[in-house]
Design a protein that fits this description.
Strand order of the largest sheet of chain A: 6-7-8-3-9-10
Order of helices and strands of chain C: HHHHHHHHHHHHHH
Low-confidence stretches of chain C: none
Chains: A alpha/beta, B mainly alpha, C mainly alpha
Oligomer: heterotrimer
Helix content of chain A: 25-40%
Strand content of chain A: 25-35%
Number of strands of chain A: 14
Order of helices and strands of chain A: EEEHEEEHHHEHEHEEEHEEHEH
Largest sheet of chain A: 6 strands, mixed
Number of helices of chain A: 9
Distance between the termini of chain C: 34 Å
Helix content of chain C: over 70%
Number of strands of chain C: 0
Mean pLDDT of chain A: 89
Largest sheet of chain C: none
Distance between the termini of chain A: 29 Å
Low-confidence stretches of chain A: 291-295
Structural class of chain A: alpha/beta
Shape of chain A: elongated
Shape of chain C: flat
Mean pLDDT of chain C: 87
Number of helices of chain C: 14
Radius of gyration of chain C: 23 Å
Chain lengths: ~300, ~140, ~325
């Protein structure tokens, strides 16, 4: 188990991570979502030892990765841009990684390269973005590390390469690998994740995929009878996602229980229907619009 | 064969359960036929294997599929569906009631409702076919 | 351990061309140059040169070739340290290394050892070659083994010290550009400061100058000594270089271990060193300002000096504030 405990990290006197704690079990997929610049990359880099935390610890099966970096052979960070490998070919990367990670599976790596038709002997900087990502992820999975941290793995790559990336990741999870994926691709995260980590103003909240909103909000489709209540709609506990003709798609807060819902029902709307609250809705609800200081 | 609708109200694993039952009902999946493994299905659908595992667990619990050690997962024999039956039939009856209330509320005519029911019967019940499992007396 | 192999391989991959250029350039400056003088030149020139050789010092050209070789090596070590530390900050190399399952200390020692081994190897090789060249040349009778060994150890210590200092500067600097500037300044800085301080004192009283010891020996390090200077300067430069070597190595190790990778791109990586840089910069600029204004206005009163001092302080304080805020991509 990979446990993050009370991680604090400031950059330029600004707190980027505030008392961040969560746990990742084996074989689980966690999605890390947040606004751009909110600290997703900082969190991944801190967990993999690139940054030192101000306070707090990251424990792999009880041992600190800062005090015993050797155990990081079970953690591999796949940055959104594998710059460090640009001067190498896929072949050379494999040889380098084999020296670093004792369980590196060369055969599996070669198989993945072959499967995706990636050139083994061309410098990585010459490959397309999708291919770069595939090589990087193949390397990461072939290390047989138990925890793979991915920073925007599907960002900017074509749909076919994306399918390939996802199939690679799903297979790895089947083998018992744990994935922590920082991404904006809500659709992909929805299909893949067991758990969502939402980063906002330096703090990380845990949401289970079964009920992403944690019961805090409900998504409704509403058609009002007569004039829509502008004041009520502009209230702090209501968020208008969409407004097409007379049909409103709303997010209604359940922080005070069913109070807001009751208010709505009393307006006797023509249509009042619950919709599934997806990841993108959660993102918008928690990270934007209502509170402008959100970051 | 199985498509996941991300926009649906139903959680993904429930969609899988529902769809597999549908495929079995339609005869697309035959009894004793080998099902794709959890890994295979997850890779095909690009979803978390844990979700597929959950769906398979539920299907097994309902007696729709059976897993045989070392061999894989198979579609169950209709006759061997075990005792969740009563519960499921009761729930099914209640669902039907709810649908009827809604239809009535929306102003659907008696004739229309009957036509719809006949349509569904025609799609799922073949001639001389009494249905998937031996139905007990439930009201 | 296998991961050491990976780390060495990584260093080599990054600095491949320096590994090959260094011994070759070294040869050209030393053995090759001697070869040119005593083998390849026109016979008349060689004979003329031979006639002017009255002592072993003449034969060895007063250590000039070793001097040039050292300067060249210093430049290459400067570039090596830039590649090892500064360049990694901007090409994702540092990030990659820090995420590996090994301590940062181990990574540092690999880099340090790489540079030292390269230096040692080049010195051993080229000293041997040079000895062979001398022994086979017209000046063979002036051959002195201890001359070569003396030069060898002197070169080794002075260059190892400079290299360690370059590394130390690199571990504190935040970007390739700032490392290049600071590392280039570092060897001359004590000399410059001494110069400014002397000028400041001279403004107030001419007599006081003689009280200050000469700052010459700190200029550009003893690297620039010719052989008579090496012989005549006693033990102090050796002690100084040894101290510099050990202190810089230790300092670089600590700084690398504690490095704040999130500050890559800034002028310096540590808040403490930001302060030191600030104070130092303002101090030097103040002195420079005072000296400059005093000289510019050909002044007779000390007041002008203080005017310059104040101006220097104000302007430099503002400048360094702006610079410290920068985050460069290079």
């Amino acid at each position: 188990m990979l446990a993050v405990r009370h991680l604090h990290k400031s950059i330029d006197h600004r707190p980027v991570l505030k008392d961040v704690s969560f746990e990742l079990r084996r074989g689980m997929v966690a999605g890390l979502i947040g606004r751009n610049g909110a600290g997703k990359t900082t969190l991944l880099k801190t967990m993999s030892g690139v940054f030192d935390p101000d306070t707090g610890d990251v424990l792999l099966d009880g041992e600190s990765v800062y005090r015993r970096p050797e155990i990081k052979r079970e953690i591999v960070l796949l940055p959104d841009n594998p710059e460090a490998l640009y001067g190498y070919t896929a072949e050379e990367c494999a040889r380098l990684y084999a020296l670093v990670y004792p369980r590196f599976d060369r055969a599996a790596f070669d198989e993945m390269i072959r499967r995706f038709g990636l050139p083994a002997n061309r410098k990585i900087r010459q490959l397309s973005r999708g291919m770069k990502m595939l090589v990087s992820i193949s390397l990461g999975i072939a290390t047989r590390a138990s925890y793979v941290l991915l920073d925007e793995p599907t960002n900017g790559i074509d749909p076919i390469a994306k399918q390939q990336v996802l199939s690679l990741l799903v297979e790895a999870v089947s083998e018992g690998t744990t994935l922590l994926i920082a991404s904006h691709a809500m659709g992909d995260l929805e299909r893949l994740s067991d758990m969502i980590l939402l980063i906002r103003q330096g703090e990380v909240e845990t949401h289970a995929m079964e009920d992403p909103s944690r019961g805090e909000a409900v998504k409704l489709q509403v058609v009002f009878d007569g004039e829509p209540p502008a004041a009520w709609l502009a209230g702090p506990q209501i968020m208008v996602l969409e407004h097409v003709g007379r049909v409103y798609t709303l997010l209604v807060s359940r922080e005070d229980g069913d109070a807001k819902l009751e208010e709505l029902k009393r307006m006797k709307p023509l249509v009042l229907e619950e919709l599934p609250l997806g990841l993108e809705d959660l993102f918008v609800w928690k990270l934007g619009g209502r509170n402008d200081e959100d970051r | 064969m199985i498509r996941i609708d991300e926009k649906s109200m139903m959680p993904i694993y429930e969609q899988i359960v529902h769809r597999i039952k549908e495929l079995i009902s339609r005869g697309v999946l035959q009894p004793d036929e080998k099902m794709p493994s959890v890994r295979e299905l997850a890779a095909r659908l690009l979803i978390n294997p844990n979700t597929v595992a959950k769906a398979y667990q539920e299907l097994e619990r309902q007696g729709v599929i059976v897993s045989v050690r070392g061999k894989g997962v198979f579609v169950a024999e209709p006759a061997s569906s075990p005792g969740m039956l009563q519960e499921r039939l009761a729930r099914l009856r209640a669902d039907l009631g709810r649908l009827m209330v809604e239809a009535h509320h929306l102003g659907v005519t008696r004739e229309q409702v009957t036509a719809w029911v006949q349509e569904e019967i025609g799609r799922y019940w073949r001639d001389g076919d009494a249905g998937g499992s031996p139905s007990s007396q439930v009201d | 351990m296998k991961i050491d192999k990976a780390l060495w391989k990584r260093e080599y991959d990054q600095a491949k061309w320096i590994v090959w250029i260094m011994p070759i350039a070294h040869f050209l400056a030393l053995g090759g140059d001697r070869l040119k003088d005593w083998y390849l030149d026109k016979p008349e020139s060689i004979r003329y040169r031979l006639e002017n050789v009255h002592s072993y010092l003449d034969a060895y050209d007063y250590g000039d070739m070793e001097l040039m070789a050292r300067i060249g090596l210093m430049l290459m070590l400067f570039v090596l340290s830039l590649v090892q530390i500064g360049m990694e900050r901007r090409n994702g190399g540092q990030e990659f290394l820090f995420s590996l399952p090994c301590t940062r200390t181990r990574i540092f020692w690999t880099k340090w050892l790489f540079g030292i081994a390269l230096l040692t190897g080049s010195l051993v090789l080229n000293t041997a070659v040079d000895m062979a060249v001398v022994l086979g040349s017209p000046i063979a009778e002036h051959f002195r083994l201890w001359y070569h060994l003396d030069q060898f150890f002197f070169a080794w210590l002075s260059l190892a010290a400079v290299y360690a200092m370059f590394l130390f500067v690199g571990t504190i600097s935040g970007s390739l550009a700032s490392q290049a500037v600071f590392a280039a300044l570092a060897p001359v800085l004590p000399f410059l400061i001494a110069l400014l301080v002397r000028a400041g004192i001279a403004v107030h009283s001419d007599d006081a100058i003689s009280l200050l010891p000469g700052a010459d020996y700190i200029l550009l390090f003893p690297v620039r000594y010719d052989y008579p200077e090496i012989l005549g300067s006693g033990p102090f430069p050796w002690i100084f270089m040894a101290v510099c070597f050990v202190a810089s190595t230790f300092g670089a190790m600590v700084a690398y271990r504690r490095t704040r990778a999130e500050n890559s791109g800034k002028l310096v990586v540590f808040p403490l060193w930001e302060r030191i840089l600030q104070v130092g910069f303002v101090f030097c600029s103040a002195l420079a300002g005072g000296t400059f204004v005093y000289a510019f206005f050909n002044a007779s009163t000390v007041i002008m000096y203080y005017v310059g001092l104040a101006l220097g302080t104000a302007i430099s304080a503002w400048v360094i504030r702006q610079l410290l805020r920068l985050r460069l991509k290079i």
